[in-house]
């Protein structure tokens, strides 16, 4: 099993040190849900299909994320509270290269 360490700041401003597995095909949205860092029903509303932006995060420290895809870019183009460092958690698949990632969960529309 291979785990990475990431920091996630919840919507109340509390930062959590999280250990995330890289061998379970999870994405950041699923990690946030499994650690219950956002109120039920306010994250991953579309089930991780890049169709709602409820899992939007602000990337504070980018250790080398994959570039944004067209679907993610299009969804963020329609979302609220978008910043230049916005990404969709459902599109950020947990891989070893994400060691040291720091994000803050965006406000829920």
- Helical percentage: 10-25%
**By helix and strand content, what is the structural category?**
alpha+beta
**What is the radius of gyration?**
12 Å
Task: Average the pLDDT over all residues and give the rounded result.
Answer: 96
Structure, described:
It is a single chain. Strands 2-1-5-3-4 form a 5-stranded mixed β-sheet. The termini are far apart. The chain contains 2 helices and 5 strands. The chain has helices at 28-34, 70-76; strands spanning 3-9, 15-21, 56-61, 86-88, 102-105. With 109 residues, the protein is α+β, with helices and mostly antiparallel strands. A hairpin with a 5-residue loop joins β1 and β2.
Throw out a few tags for this protein.
five-stranded mixed beta sheet; single chain; 5 strands; 2Fe-2S_ferredoxin-like_sf; 109 residues
How is the secondary structure organized here?
Blueprint: E1 3-9, E2 15-21, H1 28-34, E3 56-61, H2 70-76, E4 86-88, E5 102-105
Parallel strand pairs: 1-5
Antiparallel strand pairs: 1-2, 3-4, 3-5
